[in-house]
Amino acid sequence: MSNVVMLTRIRLARNLKNYPFPCRLNTAGKNEVCEKIISAVKNCNSPLADDLEVFYIKDLTEPQRIALVEKHLASPEFVSDPSGRAIILSKDRTMSIMLNEEDHIRLQILKKGFDLEAAYDIADKLDTLLDENLEFAFDEKLGFLTQCPTNLGTGMRASIMLHLPALKHSNAISRIAGNLQKLGLTIRGTYGEGSEPKGAMYQLSNQVTLGISEKSAIENLKNIANQLVSQELQAQRRIADSIEVQDKISRSLGVLKSAKLMTCDEAMELLSNVRFGITTEVLDTVSIDTVDWLINDIQPATMMVEKGEKIAPRDRDILRATILRERL
Fold first, then answer.
1. pTM attached to this predicted model
2. Using CA atoms, how far apart are residues 42 and 273, in angstroms rounded to an integer?
3. Can you tell me the distance from the alpha carbon of 48 to that of 90, in angstroms, rounded to the nearest whole number?
């Protein structure tokens, strides 16, 4: 299961009562909302507050902003406009709170593997702590009020990151996406709405937040995810014995271990093939954890942040190839 489900995320959308939504606030108003929320977080009666760091988006370099997206800690839209925005991060980077994205608060918890209940439990506890110091906009009939009507109700989006190379190989994703929509779920690219899947990585999440409890939404997502995982594993077994597929996997590892130049898109595709080879036991010399760390570490902005300098595209391709050779 963990070989297919790479990451679990729970996201809660909240807004402060008596403040307009961020789209109707000027920069001064957004800054006021930021300071109010940051103060509430710092003063909440929990050891959790000591583990949090605050970053104002305007103070971050472009690579630092993009790296937040690459690590799934922030949305592309959030980092594109830094005015009146801040992000609160846990030191281990498993929790982030975006301030003044589409809503005043976008709280999210990330957990490796398939662990929706544990992620929700942490998010719910943090939500309760914030609610003690902040008054959220809430309606008895509509639930939590959000800028976009599709988030009304629980304001919760539960999602999992799936690695689906076999279903992608069989061109089944479009059919699956249509069926999921009828069940109140959506499947998107690697970085969410509007993004393309990189290395056969897809986000599966709930769409319905109104008239359904958090528990029901999580159960529905779990059930459908289990079915998707089962379909992927069956598809993998059907094609894993093919000498052509095995050759593709072995060649992918060979290129990754020897190339001197490597674009991010090519690396993601080759790492996806290697990951598929590990899952199907075609390969036994590389671990899933090594591949997953590499998928994160070879992203363009992440590499620049790690190096502490801006790196030209060609030099990034050289550095990426070096990282891959050394790790593998």
1. 0.91
2. 44
3. 8
β-strand partners of 210 = none
Q: What is the mean pLDDT of residues 248-274?
A: 97
Q: Return the percent helix, strand and coil in the chain, to nearest 5.
A: 50, 20, 30
- Residue type for position 189: G
Residue 141 — very low, low, confident or very high, per pLDDT cuts 50/70/90? very high
pLDDT in tens, 71-104: 999 999 999 999 999 999 999 999 999 999 999 9
How many CB atoms lie under 10 A from the CB of residue 4? 24
Number of continuous H segments (helices) and E segments (strands) in the chain: 12, 10
Q: Is 281 exposed, middle or buried (0-12, 13-18, 19+ CB in 10 A)?
A: exposed
**Six token digits for residue 26:** 């000027």
- The residue count of the chain comes to 328
d(CA 162, CA 224): 12
Backbone φ and ψ for 200, nearest 5 degrees, come out as 60, 30
Burial 124-159 (b: 16+ CB within 10 A, else e): bebbebbeeebebbeeeeebbbbbeeebbbbbbbbb
